[in-house]
Design brief:
The chain is of the alpha+beta class and 491 residues long. Helix content is 23%, strand content 33%. The chain has four domains: 133 residues, Beta-Lactamase (2-Layer Sandwich), CATH 3.30.450; 43 residues; 180 residues, no CATH class; 99 residues, Mu homology domain, subdomain B (Immunoglobulin-like), CATH 2.60.40. The protein is built from eight helices and 27 strands. The strands form seven sheets. The chain has a six-stranded antiparallel sheet with strand order 8-27-23-18-21-20, with no helix packed on it. Strands 2-1-5-4-3 form a five-stranded antiparallel sheet, with helices on both faces. Helix 2 runs antiparallel to helix 4 and helix 4 crosses helix 5. It starts with a strand and ends with a strand.
Length: 491
């Protein structure tokens, strides 16, 4: 017997996987494969068909064919026996006999074909031997896998010990009435997080355009620089000079996008790195209300660092919480988002200052997989976060993900598991997700990233009223707040 080629093809003759065993030009083998479907006309019920030069021996596999091309001089009984072995090998590697599955398992099928036939002649092997040869069992690989599993177990034990230590610190701090130093679970903690908040106001008669705020969070101290899109200190002064006596519509206090993060010395202590800040902006679009005072109420008990614009009367703000210009006869600029008050939250190593904490607990399970428990908790009760999405990376390769328990909903997109919670508030401040991934190791699930939207501000600063600078008469206004995370990760 001389076997020319073995092919898995569709009933229309399209070759999915083909292995050639003798020397032959590509054009010749393609011509032989192209001729096969033409010979199948007329509803043939045989298992072979011959031409002047070759014999086609075939067997249907659902919507596919297992096809052998041999010489006409080969023994037909041996051909059929070989065909049966090939037909058993294909389902061994293809769970479903479809085109997609065959293409996905192409390399395994080719390796198996090579174990059955060598140089055109059938090898004396059975299905079990083919399976064993294709698996390529290696002693060195077993040693490598054993070492890797030992290292993973040691790493998991270290993380468990660290988690216990953090839990003890938390309990001891609670007994002393002090905030815990950290709420990180093993393998998790704050990496870097930047959040944004904004809150613009408008007049009743006319909608005031707003710009999203940016809240940049880093650990450390430094001078803060006031800035916004197109409105730095110089342009602000020049506009004041150019506007003269022109006045404008209601003040629009807002925490506005400052454009760039607040410069600060970056320090990472105990895995926690967090900086928060925001900007109150003012937009006037009615010239009747150019000279105004914005009354700000600060109910935040945390150590907020506040800084007003250089042209704002600092003494008036410190004593009465009123934002107004030093030169009272000058109006605020028209139709521009003007940053008038900047705030920054002094950071410590306590992640209670963060809006949301997320703990990830991966632990080794059976069959080389990991059981993962993830929980979130709202740290600031006054916040209401909507459309919260926690993105958990998954290991590469063929993995199985089974979710056991969850709040909200989840979806798998590529190599990420996205956990979605529609609302997180004081009434619904915690939730958990439990799932198993096989195969995996604990480090596969970091870093976690979190996004959300919110109409509540992180800082408890509120523009309570707006009045005319001349006579103190009230001015109608409105305000909008936008708070979101530019980058919020747990690594």
């Amino acid at each position: 017997m001389v076997l020319i080629a073995a092919t898995v093809c569709t009933k229309s003759g399209k070759a999915l996987v083909s292995r050639q065993f003798v020397e032959m030009t590509k054009a010749r083998i393609e011509g032989l494969l192209a001729a096969f479907p033409k010979l199948m006309t007329g509803g043939r019920q045989h298992t072979f068909v011959e031409t002047e030069s070759v014999r086609y021996v075939y067997q249907p596999l659902d919507k596919l064919y297992m096809l052998l091309i041999t010489t006409k001089a080969s023994n037909i009984l041996e051909d059929l026996e070989t065909l049966r072995l090939f037909s058993r090998v294909v389902p061994e590697y293809c769970v479903q006999l479809t085109e997609t599955e065959v293409l996905n398992q192409a390399f395994n099928l080719l390796f198996a074909f090579d174990e059955i036939v060598a140089l055109g002649y059938r090898e004396s092997v059975n299905l079990a031997q083919v399976r064993s040869f294709v698996e390529m069992d290696s002693h060195e690989e077993k040693i490598y896998q054993a070492v890797r599993q030992t290292q993973e177990r040691e790493a998991a034990n270290r993380m468990r010990e660290r988690a216990k230590e953090l839990q003890r610190e938390r309990l001891e701090a609670a007994k002393r009435g002090q905030p815990p130093r950290s709420q990180m679970s093993f393998g998790s903690g704050f990496g870097s997080s930047t959040m944004s908040s904004s809150s613009p106001s408008e007049s009743i008669a006319e909608k005031i355009p707003t710009t999203p705020a940016r809240d940049t969070r880093t650990v450390g101290r430094s001078a803060m620089k006031l800035g916004s899109r197109g409105t730095d200190a110089d342009s602000f002064v020049s506009r004041l000079r150019s506007e003269g006596d022109v006045t404008a519509p209601v003040a629009s206090p807002a925490q506005h996008d400052a454009g760039k993060p607040v410069p600060a010395d970056h320090k990472d202590t105990n895995g926690y790195n967090c900086a928060t800040g925001g900007l109150l902006t003012l937009r006037i679009s009615n010239e009747q209300f150019g000279r105004i005072h914005v009354h700000v109420d600060n109910k935040d008990s945390r150590p907020l660092q506040l800084q007003t614009h250089p042209n704002v009367d600092k003494e008036a703000f410190r004593s009465t919480g009123v934002i107004g210009l030093k030169q009272a006869q000058r109006p605020f600029p028209m139709h521009s988002d003007v940053g008038v008050l900047k705030w920054r939250l002094a950071t410590t190593n306590d992640d209670k200052l963060a809006p949301l904490s997320v703990n990830c607990w991966p632990s080794e399970g059976v069959n080389g997989g990991c059981d993962v428990n993830i929980e979130y908790e709202l740290e600031q009760d006054h916040l209401v976060l909507t459309d919260v999405n926690i993105t958990i990376p998954l290991p590469s390769g063929n993995t199985s993900v089974v979710v056991h328990q969850w709040e909200g909903s989840y979806t798998q997109k590529g190599r990420n598991l996205i956990w979605s919670i529609p609302l997180v508030s004081k009434q619904q401040k915690t939730g958990s997700l439990e799932f198993t991934v096989t195969p995996s190791i604990p480090n596969d699930f970091f870093p976690l990233s979190v996004t959300w939207t919110s109409e509540t501000s992180l800082a408890l600063l509120t523009a309570v009223k707006v009045t005319q600078a001349e006579d103190g008469s009230p001015v109608d206004f409105s305000q909008e707040i936008s708070f979101h995370a530019d980058k919020y990760e747990f690594v």
